[in-house]
Amino acid sequence: MSRYRGPKLKIIRRLGKLPGLTQKTSKKQNPPGQHGKQTTKPSTYAVRLIEKQKLKYNYGLNEKKLYSYIKKARKSRQSTTQVLLQLLEMRLDNILYRAGVTHTISAARQLINHAHILVNNQKMSIPSYQCKINDVISYRLKKKNYRFKKSSLLPSFLEINELQNCLIVKNIISRSQILLKIDELLVIEFYSKN
Q1: What pLDDT does residue 1 have?
Q2: What is the CATH number of the domain that holds 62?
Q3: Residue 44: what are its φ and ψ, rounded to 5°?
């Protein structure tokens, strides 16, 4: 199975808040399962595994794709953790989510798969497309209900041009603008064992 399609509230109760997974919130406080909250301290392996799963579920990745991003980040001359988060945040589906076009990353992925999005005036149906600086993202359909709207929540690395109804990637995202609360060094350590 490539992508998790099960109950998302169980994942949120187990891992904590994941903004890209769902907007729903659970009334239950304990983690899922028969015994609920465990009293024992988690092992170092368990802590690293939880951090890896946060990345995996939030961005909707499978294990193989996440590992390929880790390998690509290791080859870079910059900080591995910084490059990893930049690779994940510069995906087309995540950029549409961050711009407020959709409420979740999976909804943005569906919008892209149905070929409603143009990147630099070319039809794009690949959600994992790596956006670059000065890429122009627009809707393929020119109807009134398909509009990019300016918002106070719009991150500074994106810009909306309302006259042309397009979204422009201005910069690479900085660490302070990432919504997911994660210790990315633990993810790198998890994969360093392999």
Answers
A1: 44
A2: 1.10.1050.10
A3: -65, -35
Asked if residue 62 belongs to a domain, the reply is yes
User: pTM for this one?
Assistant: 0.86
**Length of the chain (residues):** 194
CB neighbour class for 107 (10 Å; exposed up to 12, middle 13-18, buried from 19):
middle
Residue 152's domain is classified under what CATH number? Answer: 3.10.290.10
Q: What is the pLDDT of residues 50-75, one digit of tens each?
A: 999 999 999 989 899 999 999 999 99
Q: How far apart are CA 130 and CA 156, in angstroms?
A: 18
Same domain, 104 and 32: no
Cβ contact 184:84 at 8 Å: yes
The tokens 């900080």 sit on which residue? 79
Helix axes 44-59, 63-75, angle to 10 degrees: 100
What are the DSSP calls for 111-147, one per residue? HHHTT-EEETTEEE--TT-B--TT-EEEESS--TTS-
Residue 124 domain-assigned (yes or no): yes
Residues 112 and 134 in one domain: yes
Give how many domains the chain has, as a whole number: 2
